[in-house]
Amino acid sequence: MTTATKWHIGFALLLLATALVVGSLAAFAFLLPDGIALIPFRQLRPIHVSAALFWIISGATAGLVHFKRVEFGETRGSILYTGFLVLWIGTILAVFGFYAVNQYGGREYWEFPPLLAIPLLFAWLLLMADYFRAWLKRTPDPPLYVWMWSTGLLFFLITFIEQNLYQIPWFRDNYLREITVQWKSNGSMVGAWNQMIYGTALYLMVKLSGDEGIARGRKVFIFWFLGLSNLMFNWGHHIYNVPTAGWIRHVAYGISMAEWIFLINIIQGFRAKMTEQRIHRNIITYRFLLASEFWVFLNLILALLMSIPAINRYTHGTHITVAHAMGTTIGINTMILLASIGTMLGMDALPDKERRWIKIGRRITTVSLLVFWFALIAAGLLKGYRSVALGMTDFQAMMQPVNNVLYVFAYAGLGVLLGLGIVVWAYFNRLLQPSS
Amino acid sequence: MRTVWIILFIAFAGYTALVYTNGDAGRMEPATAQVRAGMDTWQQQNCASCHQLYGLGGYMGPDLTNEYQRAGEERMRAFMRYGSGRMPALELNDAEIDDLIAFLAWVDRTGSSQVSPENVHWSGTYLIKPTTP
Question: How confident is the model at residue A414, as a pLDDT?
Answer without folding.
Answer: 97
